[in-house]
Design brief:
Length: 79
């Protein structure tokens, strides 16, 4: 709020609904099974728009697999 005058009135409106949190499992074809925590944030004015954030708990096999996947993607981009 301090850094952005545009953000202050938006924050006061509280137009974000309660997040939907949970755990999802994905079987990725390259790195294998990923267990990712997710949070869903939906705007209250738009039922069809949401932001989903996935993350792996630090130090878990899923975190290591995500790091491996990032390295593979980065290597492909540099080719």
């Amino acid at each position: 709020m301090v850094a952005s005058p545009e953000f202050r009135p938006l924050w006061r409106q509280h137009d974000v609904l309660a997040p939907g949190d949970g755990l999802k499992r994905f079987d990725h074809p390259v790195v294998g099974m990923l267990e990712l925590e997710h949070t869903v944030l939906a705007l209250s004015d738009t039922n069809d728009l949401s932001l989903i954030v996935y993350s792996a708990a630090p130090g878990t096999p899923s975190a290591a697999r995500l790091a491996r996947l990032l390295a593979l993607v980065s290597a492909e981009e540099n080719d």
